[in-house]
Amino acid sequence: MSDLSTAVRRGPLVLDGGLGTLLEARGNDLSSELWSARLLRDDPDEVRGAHAEFAAAGADVLITCSYQLAYGGRIDDDEVTALLARSVALARDAGEGFVAASVGPFGAARADGSEYRGDYGVSVDHLARWHRRRLHTLAEAAPDVLAVETIPCIEEVEALVSEIDGLGIPAWISLSAASDAFTDALLEEALRIAASARGVVAVGVNCCPPERVPVTLALAPAATPLVAYPNSGETWDAEARRWRGAPGIPARDARAWIDAGARLVGGCCRTTPAHIAALADAVHG
Fold first, then answer.
1. For residue 33, how many other CB atoms are within 10 A of its CB?
2. pTM for this one?
3. Which domains can be identified in the chain, with CATH numbers?
4. pLDDT of residue 234
């Protein structure tokens, strides 16, 4: 198979969907601070099986189960290194497509909701140091691309760009357009910074309502390959304690994102293999 940057230039690729959503649907408890990464240690076959479901549904790219796994937490560093490598190996075993190593934001490891606000209260240098070791470990595991995702503030984009440059592996950088820290002006600037980094093959948005996708993609620099994988179309009704709305990614929306320059399209939270199968049919016919 050709490298991902070449494949992206040839036409759109389909990403997988909500890995945590699927793992829960398969009966797994994801209530710990490690979320789905707990299963890398406790039940790796479940992670491999979930990846395989998305591959069978038509996903061209599988995103690893490493989003919330980072150094300096409750797991000792040697085990973190082993689990990060395992996350890439499990995705590689599950299908014949591309493997994207998930690099979640600083707030994801905190497990305090700050990944959706970007209100970290730390410097760009601190964020760069925090990300550095994990980025190198994942790069050494030889995925096809780093999926730098759900980044909620411009400071973290700046930190990541400084660390990605020179890693020798392609990356996409995807912002959280639902973050309180991003005005449209800051989103535009963050996308510009991300797109300027050597090795970045696409920039865009994930983990947001589908209606935020076209607004954000329009802010990206012209002629830049884009990535879009929003949440399902549902919203949480806290009073009724239930999800409302129609889940999934309408084919017309996906085609509009592709027309706007998206070359990597998929789903994030609450999107299932069935949603990805419909998306793959819309994208690849």
1. 13
2. 0.95
3. 4-284 (3.20.20.330)
4. 82
